Amino acid sequence: MRSQPAGPPPERGLFCNRTLNLRAIKAVGYDMDYTLIHYRVEAWERRAYEHIRDRLVAQGWPVGDLQFDPALAIRGLIIDTEKGNLLKANRFGFVKKALHGTRTLDFITQRDEYSHVVIDLHERRWVFLNTLFSLSEACLYAQLVDRLDAGQLPGPMGYADLYEHVRKNLDATHMQGRLKAEIIADPERYVIDDPETPLALLDQRNAGKKLLLITNSEWAYTEPMMHFAFDKHLPAGMTWRQLFDVVIVSARKPEFFTTRSALFEVVETNGEALLRPHSGPFKEGKPYFGGSAVELERHLGISGDEVLYVGDHMFGDVHVSKSALRWRTALILRELEDEVRAIASFRPTEARLAERMVLKERLEWDSCQLRLELQRRRGDYGPRTDSPTEQELVAKLGTLREELEALDAELGPMARAATELSNPIWGLLTRAGNDKSHLARQVERYADIYTSRVSNFLFATPFVYLRSPRGSLPHDPSLPGGTPVFPATDSGGGMADAE
């Protein structure tokens, strides 16, 4: 009997929100940047940051001394362009942590500014950091808020004006192509080599699935980067272009999924790429420019839940393709590997924290019961007994208060450590306080599956049936959730002792 192969390490699993039978998928579409090709985040974002900063210096801004801080921002944060703040919100849209510029807001200031605010990303005030490409932009914006507050930037200018200026210079940096030219010239410096990704796609192709590359990057960048990342890991004589049934560059996502646009064939002549209007069926082995998902579906003869699209952009790849086309979706979260490892390393402390929280909840329950009994006695209503006396009740309350204070002193450092996992400022990507983060809520809603890298499909095979866990609410006995409205019971069904 064959032994069962070892499964993937936990951080490289495929995590399923909505049951997905990969055998029923007829086409798998892929984004390129941070999906098929993973960059060294700090190296890429540092150069992107430096390009924007240098443009500002050329415009006369006194910012040449600023340096990229890789810990200042993470994916899933929200920029409040009205107040110049970086925010982390929970799944309900309530702000749980805030920085004004690079300075953490104290509890009272944060409460005053956001206690009555629910974040709605449809409002222009909020900018959600959908992808790792957003980190340089957010870092520089936060640092410039500090300079603006100090009166060191040209004015008059508000926080929203400042954000628009940063965004405009970021777009100009990408339009000029200088950064991408650097990447093409020295890909080893910026790209993480992953020989398993081409193998995963070969498995899918040979299992009968059509493979699609749909990227916003232009052909002049896509071709050399895919050549570098894929060709050396493919069978002899095969190139990355033979791996894909359809290649679409400059796709303009998310509009690619929602609108119709002209489709052009990319014609390579004497080392240059020219565009030729195209109509009719797609030609095998030809790259295309623009077009639309509707046109692609018509060409493939498939639509909706027969297509799985894999990308790293929460809105442009996952949200829109799911909402507009009902495609199945997979979100790539490279940071997930560090997150899962951090959670695993914290597990002993987490267990101790949970154990002490059970005691804290029981002490709070007893305290509430004593306070209610005192209230009823003093108000002369409700059931009552003569024992214990009011003085004894007050004394018991005092003892419980002391026990709770001692317990809080023990819990405090553990709770703080839990909020600093992965990132000392923002903590875990998927958590906000004791709740799911705003990003986690979107992952849950729009990503059928999520994983850290495309090569994780190797562990699952193209024939896997991915089943989502049973959903749970706080009353569900299968998983712990929230504080019960009654004290814990012992195995015999009676009230458990507080000790």
3D architecture notes:
Keywords: Hydrolase, Magnesium, Metal-binding. GO terms for molecular function: 5'-nucleotidase activity; metal ion binding. Belongs to the 5'(3')-deoxyribonucleotidase family. It holds the Pfam family 5_nucleotid. The radius of gyration is 27 Å and the shape is globular. Helix content is 42%, strand content 15%. The protein has 3 domains: 21-38 and 191-333, HAD superfamily/HAD-like (Rossmann fold); 41-185, no CATH class; 346-428, no CATH class. The two termini are 51 Å apart. It has 499 residues and is α/β, with parallel strands linked by helices. The strands form 5 sheets. It has a 10-stranded mixed β-sheet with strand order 1-20-17-16-3-11-12-15-13-14, with helices on both faces. A 5-stranded antiparallel β-sheet has the order 8-7-6-5-9.
Task: Please summarize what this structure is.
This protein is of the alpha/beta class. Helix content is 42%, strand content 15%.
SSE layout and pairings?
Layout: E1 15-16, E2 20-21, E3 27-30, E4 38-39, H1 41-58, E5 78-80, E6 85-89, E7 95-100, E8 103-104, H2 107-114, E9 126-128, H3 135-149, H4 159-176, H5 178-185, H6 187-190, E10 191-192, H7 196-206, E11 210-214, H8 219-230, H9 240-243, E12 246-249, H10 255-258, E13 263-269, E14 272-277, E15 287-290, H11 293-300, E16 307-311, H12 314-325, E17 328-332, H13 336-345, H14 347-379, H15 390-419, E18 431-432, E19 435-436, H16 438-446, E20 449-451, H17 457-460, E21 465-466
Parallel strand pairs: 3-11, 3-16, 11-12, 12-15, 16-17, 17-20
Antiparallel strand pairs: 1-20, 2-21, 4-10, 5-6, 5-9, 6-7, 7-8, 13-14, 13-15, 18-19
Helix pairs in contact: 1-3, 1-4, 3-4, 12-16, 14-15
GO molecular function, one term: 5'-nucleotidase activity
InterPro entries: HAD-like_sf (IPR036412), HAD-SF_hydro_IG_5-nucl (IPR008380), HAD_sf (IPR023214), Pur_nucleotidase (IPR016695)
Keywords: Hydrolase, Magnesium, Metal-binding
